[in-house]
Specification:
- The complex is a heterodimer of chains A (about 500) and B (about 270).
- Chain A is built from 12 helices and 14 strands.
- With about 500 residues, chain A is α+β, with helices and mostly antiparallel strands.
- Chain A folds into 4 domains: about 140 residues, Cytochrome Bc1 Complex, Chain D, domain 2 (Orthogonal Bundle); about 100 residues, Cytochrome c-like domain (Cytochrome Bc1 Complex, Chain D, domain 2, Orthogonal Bundle); about 210 residues, Immunoglobulin-like (Sandwich); about 30 residues.
- In chain A, strand 4 and strand 5 form a beta hairpin.
- Chain A starts with a helix and ends in a 6-residue tail after the last helix.
- Chain B contains 10 helices and 2 strands; from the N terminus they run H-H-H-H-H-E-E-H-H-H-H-H.
- Chain B is elongated and about 95 Å long.
- Classes of the chains: A alpha+beta (about 500), B mainly alpha (about 270).
- Chains A and B meet through helix 3, strand 3, strand 14 and helix 12 of A and helix 4, helix 5, helix 7 and helix 8 of B.
Chain lengths: ~500, ~270
């Protein structure tokens, strides 16, 4: 059999080999020597840094990525159209190399044409013997075409989601906070987080409804994400797809301006209506690792933070939201490097200490020696309304100090529910040693998030760049008045002009 | 220049040369043509104050030109007077009188409803480097410095390849999360930094730069930039706190090797 297959392969003409993705089950496709050699050349130049020269996933860059670059000798692949535990098809491999896996170290490789991709696939397959075994080769499952999305179907999908215990890992609202979330590991024993289903742009295998169908039908090998091929009926599957699809908006849609909105009401952190006061619209800011100053963080847990800002006559308040597998609400947190044993979750808002001169700003990482920043810091382990929120001054990452006697300058409350932290900060708009939040003004603002579960503290944290906050003026100018004024003025000029012309030049009969 | 606007404007004017429109028509056409070109055809767009100034000058010039002699004045004045006085134009006159205030009011509306944009920040991407810098206490003359391993490319290709390999290690241990493994500035964290990490694969970036310039940028990073380049925003780390002098020269070799580009030679060498 083996002999026969190889005979078959080597006698096949080249063009057919290139179209290898169409071969039938059981057929081994390893390419020609020349193809594998060409694949090897590209692999060594472009892939070995991560996947290792021997394909075992131990490249130079491996320690800096999580998930780890794949060990090809394990022949374990996440994104497949084949059943759980089976090898992927050539088309699967080609596709994932072309598209890449978002929010991991694996980029897409659009510069390779079809032939080069195929050569890479042939070469990758040499790392695992299974690909040479005809008994190990299986056909792709057929992924039916997606019926149109409907919200009724999504509604029914919620039940399918609950019945199949997706929430044990992904959480009730899909924020990746199920009860098992913090305990999950890959087959290799590394910790892994369940996907945040409210952010489908981060899905490794792609964000379309067909992708989601494939994910829970074939499972993601090597991870705890199971295959539900045998458990969910065809119709219920599309309902589940629609439910998962409905949990997330289309794209991340990150903002670079935060609008601070005026409100008439009293801003009272203890009021039950306080969250509603902030309205629905949040600016969504990407959070990335602090990999610039010593104590670097390559695997920040948070990947985005939602921000809403309101103000009234004398107070400004910010509501921050982000997703977390679990709340670490015991222990301590600090923006200053220390050796805290039990780290709690924490968050900070960063603003320049003084209004900026021209375009000058403090350095975006906790300021610099000339231009300092104020940090509104909340250690989420504490009963916040008492002393959890504190003011720090940053004059550089190695030079952050608590402001003595600043207790009570900033107030904050926090809550954690269903995989989401909500923290509300509040302070006076004008006070000494602080910025005045003037209407109509742009202010740079930045954020830091520390995840206690991941032992983040000091400079090991998730950060944002400076973004602009606009204090939208309270009185939005009415445009009716100015429009009327201009219109009437122009009309008056016209009429006067015509009257003058008509008087000067006698009217000629028509 | 936006040729899609400029060319039609020129074409219309040339076309009109073959028709018989009076001086009044020409005055109007010149005015509209200058306005269109000044506001829409120039890239980057002129500030509105400059457009306003240009139009004021054009208006005055046209008036002066018209009033140079009586016949010109008459050929502009008479049709206008007829339009305002003659009864057979009355309906048109009313329409025009009504339209102009509406247009003016619409302009006010548009101006007041511009979306709010943060103040534009100009950033000099490639500022002039200093003459010399100090690297961990050692003076480096940035005007005359050469990559100490560049000559090996000719003299000892094997040794050279070893240094490139070292540079690859430095890159993938330190730079890949921002500048990306395709060197296109699309690393895993790139979307979170503003300005975006530099794209070395772009054939107009590092080819235009000397190796000494790259050394300065890599060693001193964002904080080492002059004020016009916004040092407070750049996430480019100052690598002198993490890398040795040799490692920086090696990563520079690697940047050119991977992207199959050559550094710009020092001027007096050519």
């Amino acid at each position: 059999m083996q002999f026969f297959t190889s005979l078959l392969i080597f006698s096949l003409p080249l063009p057919l080999l290139l179209a290898a993705s169409t071969v039938h089950a059981g057929e081994v496709t390893l390419g020609t020597d020349a193809q594998r050699a060409a694949g090897k050349e590209n692999y060594q130049k472009y892939c070995a840094q991560c996947h290792g020269a021997e394909g075992d996933g131990s490249g130079i860059a491996t320690p800096f990525f999580n998930p780890l670059p794949r060990d090809f000798t394990s022949a374990t692949y996440k994104i497949r159209t084949t059943e759980s535990g089976e090898l992927p098809t050539d088309a699967d491999l080609k596709n994932i190399i072309l598209e890449g896996m978002p929010y991991t170290g694996m980029p897409g490789w659009p510069q390779f044409d079809d032939e080069e991709l195929m050569e890479l696939v042939f070469y990758i397959k040499t790392f695992a013997e299974d690909f040479a075994d005809p008994d190990a080769i299986v056909a792709a499952l057929e992924i039916p075409e997606a019926p149109p999305f409907s919200s009724e179907s999504a509604e029914s999908g919620k039940t399918v989601y609950e019945e199949n215990k997706c929430m044990e890992c992904h959480g009730l609202y899909g924020r990746g906070d199920g009860e098992k979330a913090t305990t999950l590991t890959t087959d290799a024993g590394d910790p892994i987080r369940p996907a945040d289903l409210t952010k489908r742009w981060t899905f490794r295998g792609g964000p379309t409804r067909e992708d989601i169908y494939r994910t829970f039908t074939t499972g993601m090998d090597g991870t705890p994400m199971p295959s539900y091929a045998d458990f969910i009926e065809e119709e219920a599957r599309w309902q589940l797809v629609d439910y998962v699809y409905s949990l997330s908006r289309e794209t991340a849609n990150y903002s670079d301006v935060i609008f601070a909105r005026a409100v008439e009401e009293e801003i009272d952190l203890d009021s039950p209506e306080i969250v509603a006061l902030f309205g629905d619209e949040a600016a969504f800011i990407p959070v990335v690792g602090q990999v610039i100053e010593a104590e670097r963080e390559f695997f920040p847990s948070a990947n985005a933070i939602g921000v809403r800002v309101i103000y009234n006559d004398d107070t400004v308040a910010m509501l921050l939201n982000w997703h977390d597998m679990a709340a670490e609400d015991s222990g301590t947190a600090s923006p200053i490097k220390g050796d805290i044993q039990t780290t709690s979750d924490a968050v900070a808002v960063q603003l320049p200490s003084e209004p900026s001169h021209g375009q000058t700003r403090p350095y975006f990482l906790h300021g610099d020696s000339q231009n300092s920043v104020n940090l509104w810091f909340a250690d989420l382990a504490n009963e916040l309304s008492n002393d959890g929120a504190r003011l720090f001054i940053g004059k550089g990452s190695q030079n952050v100090m608590a402001v003595e006697g600043s207790e009570g300058v900033i107030e904050a409350v926090s809550s954690f529910a269903d995989g989401e932290w909500t923290v509300i900060f509040k302070r006076d708009r004008a006070s000494d040693n602080a910025l005045v939040f003037e209407e109509g003004q742009f202010l740079p603002i930045a954020f830091s998030v520390w995840d206690g579960f991941h032992q983040e503290q000091g400079n090991r944290r998730g950060i944002t760049s400076w973004v602009n906050m606009y204090i939208a003026p309270r009185e939005t100018q009415s445009f009716i008045g100015p429009m009327l004024r201009v219109g009437l003025l122009v009309l008056l000029i016209e009429v006067l002009l015509i009257a003058w012309v008509r008087r000067k030049y006698k009217r000629t009969p028509g | 220049m936006n040729w899609l606007i400029l060319l039609p404007v020129v074409a219309v004017i040339v076309g009109l040369l073959f028709t018989r429109i009076g001086l009044l028509g020409w005055v109007a056409i010149v005015w509209v043509a200058v306005y269109t070109v000044a506001s829409y055809a120039i890239i980057p767009p002129l500030p509105s104050s400059i457009v306003g100034l240009t139009m004021a000058i054009v208006t005055v010039s046209l008036l002066v030109y018209i009033s140079t002699d009586e016949s010109k004045l008459a050929s502009v004045r008479d049709p206008l007077v007829r339009f305002m006085v003659d009864r057979k134009y009355q309906n048109y006159l009313i329409a025009v009188v009504a339209t102009i205030p509406v247009l003016a009011a619409a302009r006010v509306y548009i101006q007041m409803n511009q979306p709010i944009e943060p103040p534009a920040v100009g950033r000099t991407i490639h500022p002039a480097p200093p003459q010399e810098m100090s690297f961990k206490g050692k003076k480096i003359d940035l005007v005359n410095v050469e990559n100490p391993y560049r000559a090996l490319e000719q003299s000892d290709p094997q040794e050279f390849a070893l240094h490139v390999e070292q540079g690859r290690r430095v890159y993938f241990e330190n730079c890949v999360f921002c500048h990306g493994d395709r060197m296109d500035g699309e690393g895993i964290f790139a979307h979170g930094y503003e300005p975006r990490p530099a794209n070395f694969a772009d054939p107009t970036t590092i080819v235009m730069l000397q190796e000494g310039y790259l050394f300065w940028r890599i060693a001193t990073g964002g904080p080492g930039l002059p004020a016009e380049s916004g040092p407070w925003n750049s996430s480019m780390p100052a690598w002198d706190q993490f890398l040795s002098e040799q490692e920086i020269w090696e990563v520079i070799l690697f940047l050119y090797d991977y992207t199959e580009q050559r550094p710009r030679a020092r001027e007096h060498h050519e």
